[in-house]
Amino acid sequence: RNFTGLGLYDRQFLDAIRKYNDPYPFIRGLIIEIGFNRVEVPYTQEKRKYGKSSFSFFSYYDYAMTGFVNQTKLPLRIAVLSGFILATFSFMVALGYFIYKVLYWDTFTVGLAPLVIGMFFFSAIQLIFTGIIGEYLGAVWTQVKNKPLVIEEERINFDHED
């Protein structure tokens, strides 16, 4: 609650953020990702005396999505996993439908079930491939971001800078 990202940052932290070369750095996520020691200072934010915030719902949404996209590949992984789950479920239902049709072929009506099962199965296949394409795009995006592998806080027992 009331976490704004407002803070006092030292030169070392700001230099580390610059190494990320990100035009829209998500400071809240980078504070944790970089891993420097941090100290929280208790602060009570007073109510605004005049006017109101210009940060609209869409600004908050944009900020949240920037943070979400910059910090995780989870949605891509969920797409692939849900595609596999849906494909497996559709295949099992289709197999059950086929067995039922073979056993009770003389009393079984055709209906829309095969079309619906097929639609779910091919939707699952599309979801799987969309997720795989998303994984490739995520990998390319990770390489393009050019994040530093390690950010050194300090060097100990080194004679010269390398």
UniProtKB/TrEMBL annotation:
Q: Name one GO cellular component term.
A: plasma membrane
Topological type in the membrane: Multi-pass membrane protein
Which keywords accompany this UniProt record? Answer: Glycosyltransferase, Membrane, Transferase, Transmembrane, Transmembrane helix
Q: Which InterPro entries match?
A: Glycosyltransferase_2
Coiled coil (residue ranges): none
A molecular function (GO) term: glycosyltransferase activity
Q: Where in the cell is it found?
A: Membrane
Transmembrane residue ranges: 78-100, 112-137
Main subcellular localization, coarse class? membrane
Could you identify this protein by its name?
A: Glycosyltransferase 2-like domain-containing protein
Source organism per entry reads marine metagenome
